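User: My instructor asked us to take a sequence, write out its structure as tokens, and then describe one feature of it. I'm not sure where to start. Here is the sequence I was given:
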Amino acid sequence: MNNAGLPGTGLGGLFYLLLALGMPIVELGRSAVGRSGPDRRRQAFQQFAMACAIVASVAGTMAVYLHLVDAPNPFGLDGPALVTAPLVLAVLLLAVLVVGLRVWARIVRDTVPAT
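Assistant: Let's start with the prediction itself. The structure tokens for your sequence are:
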């Protein structure tokens, strides 16, 4: 399926979705310790709502496309696997990126002399 230009379908879109869907959880934790304000909560809700709209639009577009066009499902996936496969890939790539950056930061910290 060619979905060029559809928001949320690229690798950057998946990372955005993961982070935006996690923002309310982070803000809930910050609110519990008193480090969040109304502006931060409003921004987290706006980003969460936008991420939900992107997920709904991609799922709706895919459902309409697969219903109108007699085409096989992409990658042979059906149902929940069609949604979870890209999310699992994005989580794995994000985890590798975070671990790599932490290792790099530790190497830089240990090699730079203290002043």
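For the description part of your assignment, you could build on this observation: The chain has a mean pLDDT of 79. Try explaining in your own words what that tells you about the chain.
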